Amino acid sequence: MSARSGVWNERPPGIIRALPMTRLNELVTRIRACRLCEAELPNAPRPVLQVSASARILVAGQAPGRLVHLSGVPFDDPSGDRLREWMGIDREVFYDAGRIAIVPMAFCYPGTGPNGDLPPPPRCAATWHGALRPKLRKLGLTLVIGLHAQRHWLGEQAEDTLTATVAAWERFGPAVLPLPHPSPRNNRWFQHNPWFERDVVPEVRRRVAAQLAVSD
Ligand code: SF4
Questions:
Q1: Which one of 30, 35, 145, 189 has the fewest beta carbons within 10 angstroms of its own beta carbon?
Q2: Structural domains of the chain, with CATH
Q3: For atom 4 of ligand 1, which residue has the closest CA?
Q4: What's the pTM?
Q5: CA pair distance 203, 182, nearest whole angstrom
């Protein structure tokens, strides 16, 4: 998306082509049946996402972790608990697909390496995001979570590091907030960057509340 305007880029990095236009429910059915990465994933593909045409808030994340792969519920883990705390909402609101969309860079658990979960396979966003993006027409706020999502969705407007991009949150306009990944693995990052909890988290809550208050 254009970080300043809050609308999607016409061609974000990684999007190689758009699939033919289909209805959203048909598209989601195709995504849930996707097996493109079957040979590379540690488990059978289990695409996890949450979307609706009426969603006002997009959680643009990285990829499901192991617990989410098991449950099939996005952010059903300690990362999700912290994210909901940042957003100031409970599980009931978070899992209301009519208001909140959850679209990671990859819909399936990529497996774990020595330094944590492996990066999302680029094929997923390249295959599906271009078709999904136009279906989410009512977004007023996108939370761009983690380095991979920031490079993808913010493109050249992302800074060289995640910390620099998050620290520059004010320049992305009212419809976009870059955030670190809420994983407990990042606890040291939170300790070293107290400005995030002090300055950015209250803004996350304010913007989320404002979007949830919008009525059509
Ligand atoms: S990660 Fe994406 S592209 Fe790969 S199998 Fe899962 S849904 Fe398909």
A1: 35
A2: 24-212 (3.40.470.10)
A3: 37
A4: 0.89
A5: 16
